[in-house]
Amino acid sequence: MTRIIVLTGAGISAESGVPTFRGAGGLWEGHRVEDVATPEAFAADPETVQRFYDARRRAVASVAPNPAHHALAALERAIGDDLLVVTQNIDDLHERAGSSRVLHMHGELGRARCAACGERPPVQDDLLPGPPCPACGERMLRPDVVWFGELPYGLDEIDAALAACDVFVAIGTSGAVYPAAGFVLTASALGASTLELNLAESEITPFFAESRLGPASVLVPEWVRELLAAPSRTT
Ligand code: OAD
């Protein structure tokens, strides 16, 4: 059985119309993501930070998964538990394409976190008006996203999966943010084969055994077709 970890970044959602963080169009109202995605930024100017995430939540609600998300969902239907998608994305496009084994290591736009009671309620609307927490009633909800300086979700589960995987694939991530950028080194040190699918070379391209350049909407379906057609596949 092949155990596959797919790490996704903003590039897989780019063709759905969700802007990436870095590169052209990567600024939001003149802010770098590092300037709005920190606990310090939230403490200093909560309104600007809430507006940033409210705008992204609204933008994501109006777009749809693209062929790359659909191909990963098809791969999960074919190999089930042998696939884990670890995403840095806070959108829900993997789930809307049909994937269920998705670990959101940087959190989700579709959840809030209550600073008063710790509850993580689902959220669809803007957080800027300061709605009350459905659990405790306090108006202290923040986006349930991981900011710079905070610990990503699921690191123990990811470490265990990296240790057990045979294949590690990174799709549409710049490799600028750790710990995700280091997963390829862990996976290859532990014996996995490694493949990068990206529109352009990334900061971590040299760490992969193989790197394919092109849009995710083309490369991901191609790779999934190859994998499912391979004679050595035992699942
Ligand atoms: P980035 O915006 O840093 O990088 C996007 C990557 O996607 C780049 O390497 C592009 O070449 C690639 N790309 C763009 N369009 C593509 C396409 N159509 N097909 C394939 N690849 C494409 O996004 P991430 O690497 O996801 O964290 O950023 C990592 C983290 O930085 C984010 O999760 C976020 C951000 O700060 C937090 O907010 C904690």
From TrEMBL:
Main enzyme class: transferase
Give me the residues that bind Zn(2+), please.
C114, C117, C133, C136
According to the lineage, what is the superkingdom?
Answer: Bacteria
The cofactors required by this protein are: Zn(2+)
> Gene3D superfamilies under this entry?
SIR2/SIRT2 'Small Domain, TPP-binding domain
Query: What reaction does this enzyme carry out catalytically?
Result: N(6)-succinyl-L-lysyl-[protein] + NAD(+) + H2O = 2''-O-succinyl-ADP-D-ribose + nicotinamide + L-lysyl-[protein]; N(6)-acetyl-L-lysyl-[protein] + NAD(+) + H2O = 2''-O-acetyl-ADP-D-ribose + nicotinamide + L-lysyl-[protein]
Write down how the cofactor binds this protein: Binds 1 zinc ion per subunit.
In what residue span(s) does the Deacetylase sirtuin-type domain sit? 1-230
Q: Which SUPFAM superfamilies match?
A: DHS-like NAD/FAD-binding domain
Is Glycoprotein one of the keywords?
Answer: no
Instruction: Give the residues annotated as active site.
Output: H106
Which keywords are on file for this protein? Cytoplasm, Metal-binding, NAD, Transferase, Zinc
The cellular location(s) given in this protein's UniProt record come to: Cytoplasm
Binding positions for substrate per the UniProt entry: Y53, R56
**What's this protein's family per the entry?**
Belongs to the sirtuin family. Class III subfamily.
Read off the PANTHER family from this record: NAD-DEPENDENT PROTEIN DEACYLASE (PTHR11085:SF4), NAD-DEPENDENT PROTEIN DEACYLASE SIRTUIN-5, MITOCHONDRIAL-RELATED (PTHR11085)
Question: What's this chain's function?
Answer: NAD-dependent lysine deacetylase and desuccinylase that specifically removes acetyl and succinyl groups on target proteins. Modulates the activities of several proteins which are inactive in their acylated form.
Q: What is this protein called?
A: NAD-dependent protein deacylase
What organism does the record attribute this protein to?
Answer: Agromyces marinus
The gene designation is cobB
